[in-house]
From TrEMBL:
Catalytic residues of the enzyme: E404
Entry's Gene Ontology BP terms: proteolysis
Native organism: Parnassius mnemosyne (clouded apollo)
Protein name: Peptidase M14 domain-containing protein
Residues annotated as domain Peptidase M14: 142-435
Coiled-coil stretches: none
Signal peptide range: none
Example of a GO MF term: zinc ion binding
Gene Ontology CC annotations of this record: extracellular space
């Protein structure tokens, strides 16, 4: 009798009740302990991703971290606990073949709908990490670990040394520097340019965000399109592809779906959600005080060295015009504040600028338009302690946005990174164009 059969009778009622609870009330799960099933398994083949939906109710995404193929293609046990993130239209759960019977009994008991999204998510992960897709030079047909991304930044700063330099925005728990690239072409010495800050990769598993950010850097520095060169020359750019370098490396080498930092590594439960750790309404919405939770907000605001040092860097920037954060994978544009439906004083301007940004992006993509712009509280879910809201509240930065890039189950085909890169480049161009029309610079 396998482990799942042993726990079936005991756990079925509790698991079903918890699934139903999470789907009825998205915040009900925020402070729950992760469920542990003691899976004594070292290899699992063909784990499926199954989407669970309940009609007419706002749902909670539940991602069950079962074993996946690791970076060299072997299947290894990664995690045996249920963790979750939010969506409005369903729950995505990774299910091993030997637990499918139990899973579908839960679905039937709770009267839920289930659709298989991926028959074998491990094949997708293996494909994402395949070295065969990587060129000898940094490219946008593959995903790269943090050292390669930092190498790209150094190479660009050397190639375009008159315009760019590597900058350090902070430090990580494991001693890595949070590296970015400053791009600032010569301008009038008596009139400093407005600063645009781009923060990317704060959630480790959202790989398309750092990839798209490096693509955008490359466009700014290499494009001959006069619209892009003008965009480059108008601002003092501070661009950080991965502000959670430890977590990103961990997602690349151990757990593909890791979201948090790795502070406290070695403990049974470690890491903090760095986008719940900023000192703005900390710990109120869509966050947890349980260290095992995927949205653990930390022991206090700025408990994480990553958020503490990065926020200090940002506070010392003069003339900060715009703060842009890249996430995935909901295909939407968000404005402050994420935990309130009350609108800030230049909300109408932000919406107008945001709509133009999305118009520019749609002209590139034409398949599906981003949702929004709007607050997360209105079009996604309430969330507190995020970087975007802290920047707006603390520094009164005029233009503050979060772009949720495209994707499915945090996956975007590496061969198509350029598509999102082109779309994002045009969206930023649209943002700058409309902001200029409204007199922001």
């Amino acid at each position: 009798m396998d482990t799942w059969t042993k726990v079936k009778t005991k756990k079925l009622r509790n698991i079903g009740a918890q699934l139903q609870k999470c789907m009825r009330n998205p915040c009900a799960c925020c402070h729950e302990t992760q469920w542990h099933f003691n899976l004594n398994i070292t290899e699992i083949k063909e784990p499926k991703v199954i989407k669970v939906q309940r009609q007419r109710e706002r749902n909670r995404t539940l991602v069950y971290y079962l074993p996946m193929k690791n970076n060299v293609g072997h299947v290894t046990k990664l995690k045996d606990s249920l963790v979750y993130s939010d969506t409005r239209d369903g729950a995505e759960i990774v299910v091993a073949p030997d637990s499918e019977i139990l899973f579908y009994e839960i679905i039937a008991t709770e009267n839920l709908n289930a659709t298989v999204l991926h028959n074998d998510i491990s094949d997708i992960i293996y494909m994402e990490k395949s070295r065969r897709q990587r060129n000898r030079e940094f490219s946008w047909t593959a995903y790269y670990d943090i050292d390669d991304i930092n190498g790209f930044l150094r190479n660009m700063s050397e190639t375009y040394s008159k315009w760019s330099e590597v900058i350090v925005g902070g430090q990580s728990y494991q001693g890595r520097s949070i590296l970015g690239l400053r791009i600032n072409t010569p301008g009038r010495k008596d009139s400093p340019k407005p600063v645009v800050f781009i923060e990317s990769g704060i959630h480790a598993r959202e790989w398309i965000a750092p990839a798209t950010t490096t693509y955008f850097i490359n466009e700014l520095l290499t494009s001959s399109d006069p619209n892009i060169t003008a965009l480059r020359d108008q601002f003092d750019w501070r661009i950080f592809p991965s502000v959670n370098p430890d977590g990103y490396h961990y997602s690349f080498t151990v757990d593909r779906f890791w979201r948090k930092t790795v502070s406290g590594f070695g403990s049974r439960c470690f890491g903090t959600d760095p986008n719940r750790n900023w000192k703005y309404n900390w710990g109120q919405y869509s966050s947890s005080n349980n260290p095992c939770d995927n949205k653990y907000a930390g022991s206090q605001p700025f408990s994480e060295i990553e958020t503490r040092t990065l926020s200090s860097y940002i506070k010392n920037i003069s003339n900060l015009l715009a703060y842009i954060s890249f996430h995935s994978s909901a295909a939407m544009l968000l404005v402050p504040y994420s935990d309130s439906t009350e609108h800030i004083n230049n909300y109408d301007d932000l919406i107008q600028v945001g709509k133009t940004s999305l118009d520019y992006g749609y002209e590139t993509n034409k398949e599906e338009r981003y949702r929004g712009p709007g607050t997360a509280a209105e079009i996604l879910y309430k969330a507190s302690g995020g970087s975007m809201d802290w920047v707006r509240y603390t520094l009164a930065t005029p233009l503050v946005y979060t772009y949720e890039l495209r994707g499915n189950s945090f996956h975007w085909p590496p061969s198509r990174i350029y598509e999102q890169g082109d779309e994002v480049t045009q969206m930023i161009l649209g943002l700058a164009t409309e902001a200029h029309k409204l007199g922001y610079y």
